[in-house]
Amino acid sequence: MADSYKEFVDWASGVITSIDGDQIPENAFSKGINTSFVKSGLGRTSIGTRPGLNTVNTTALTSSPAIHWQAPYSYNTGSAYTNYVALCTADGKLYYRQSNDTLTAAFAPPSNFPAPASLCFSAGTSPVDGTVLDNRLFLVNDASERRSLVNQTYVPWGLSPIASWVTAENTAITGGNSMPAETYDVTVTSYNSTSGGESSSSTLKTVTLGGANRRISVTISPSSAETAQYTHWRIFIRRQTTQSKLYKVLTFENVAGADIVTDGNIPIATTAAYLDLSAATIATQITAAPSTSENDPPASSITHVTAFGRRLICADGRNIYWSKQDQADNFGTNNFEPIETGEGDQIIGLHQYSDELLMIFLTTGTWGLYGNDPQTWALKPIDLTIGCASRNSIVSMPGNIAWWDRAVGPVIYDGTDINRVGQMLLGLAAVTTELNSTRSAFIYAGHDPAADRIVWSVSSLGSSINDRLLVFNYALRRFEASYWSTIDAASFATAVNTGSETSLYLGGYYGQLFYFSTTYKNDGVPSGTLTGEFIPATTSITEIAGTGFYTTGSGLANRYVVIVDGDYLPVDRVRITSNTASALTLATAVTPLVLSTTYTYYIGSPDFRFYGRWMDFDQPFLRKRFDRLYYHFGAPSGIADAYVSTQLEFDEDVSTPVTNSVLGESLWDTADWDAATWTGSASLKQRLSVGRSGTALRPVIFVYTPGRELIVQKLAIMARMLGDRYYA
Hints:
By secondary structure, the protein is mostly beta strands. The chain folds into four domains: about 5-50 and about 610-725, Jelly Rolls; about 80-155 and about 300-470 and about 495-500, Methylamine Dehydrogenase, Chain H (7 Propeller); about 165-285, no CATH class; about 530-605, Immunoglobulin-like, CATH 2.60.40. The chain has four helices and 55 strands. The strands form 13 sheets. Strands 1, 5, 6, 50, 53 and 55 form a six-stranded antiparallel beta sheet that branches. A six-stranded antiparallel beta sheet has the order 43-48-45-46-47-44, with no helix packed on it. It starts with a strand and ends in a 5-residue tail after the last strand.
């Protein structure tokens, strides 16, 4: 029979594992680890190595805590914006990443702050939720500890009325006004000049003046907790006979009768003030007192917060709460709405989809709050079969919101439908049973707008950290890899790096911060030895000897080393716990090893592994003689080693032969290939003699070299049909 030839030049459909590998589209591939989309010439999508990581802090934060929450925060100084990324760590601290990539411990609470000294939250509490509104950063955690900051200064979020205060008749100072002999109602509020927040009114009290030359005294007795919250207090009065409302008093006297304030705000350190107001002055006051409930702080049970319609929207397990418009501290007693939840169901997160839609995510369902005013809001279900696993799995992208459902994995809402992209493209097993379901509440999502992708950080089976990234390209609406590995990401934030590029920052589990770099293909190893060889003295090792390892700061701690055997096949990839200049200490033992055999190690390798489509030439029941594999590679970051092999008959094990292709050489007839599709610094076109028989075959390509990138531009296979004797 004649030779058959099939060529593959485009992989725009990405990884598809939800159907058999020989049934996926010809522009898809069957498996990819640390693969990513690369735009090539002629509108094609090639496959390349995932981006590497740059390290922000070479020395880990004290105690090496997990950076389990991040978010950008821009503070308006009045003349310019100061851009930060706020970070919360597992030990309860709050840091700011400055524009120059330095980390500063930002939280400095008052000495009588209710949390431990220097901590934003109690250590060991669950991940944080946060938002920015009115130039303030609002934070809350799953222990319902709520915090608010202006720039890097703590500001109370919500104020309670002053609890202990008294009012009485007092003898007037000679020459003062003559307050009418009258019964007056008096109340007080607390006020914070930094946030602009004011409490609800305290309990109403009554005082009667018996004659001329009398005045009203008001005395407060603030607790230490109150003095940590308030900067000022205010007094409101009314004449019972002539006024229906209480009005703020603007002018006060001290004990000697001198005016001490003219704006109605009394410093909290001034605990006594006196009113000596004429009837005319009393009648001209215009600012009415708040009621005893309209400026209440948010409910003590809240665990979620977001901004919507110039309000703060908060939630606990079953209710949503909202502030007054442009008054983030003030929540009325009646400003809440219960969400219809089933048995064991609860609110997981809040996220704005548009100016007219706030999405409310529950364990097993999704609701929408439609409208922009509480008087006209409509609360409606969007989909009661799709819920949310983690509030931090929710992420916005142009025109869409994506999140993670416990049952079906990643989903995307486009304003009309919820699309089950994880189930549809990767299959349920890849997004459910192959992951550690006990850690679904810790799934975290990030947005990389420069690459049109979103990523979810998840835990593989048996892992106690998020050790995999699932990568979805929303421009192509396809997954770029089965997963990215050797990246442990507890949190993400999108921000501008020191090179003025918008990057995706990763919060590590061991006190370090990283960001993706499109030009750097090394996972956070700035210098030193990146690769070498060793011969094990035992079949199980926890240390690798070498020379010239990077030791600045925390050194190579928590980077990964990839180990391959003499046939270029992967043996293990394991985390480095610490190192010296001459030795790497490994987190887990590498086993089993063959004595007197030479192994190669790679430090900080993206560990690229590409598995092409299973090729059966649309003849799944006929045996074929697979003669040759043709491949065209590019290497924009310089010369690297690529290891090419094949697999047969849907066998997941890598099989021989393996060829070592050194990029930068052109070893085959370039005239038969379209070299214009790649303009990188190195290119390789080569053919591999396969000489294997079976019904289906797929190519396998590995690259381990740190600091190098591979672009898979074209693949082709030549085969001869042998008939169906294989099944006889």
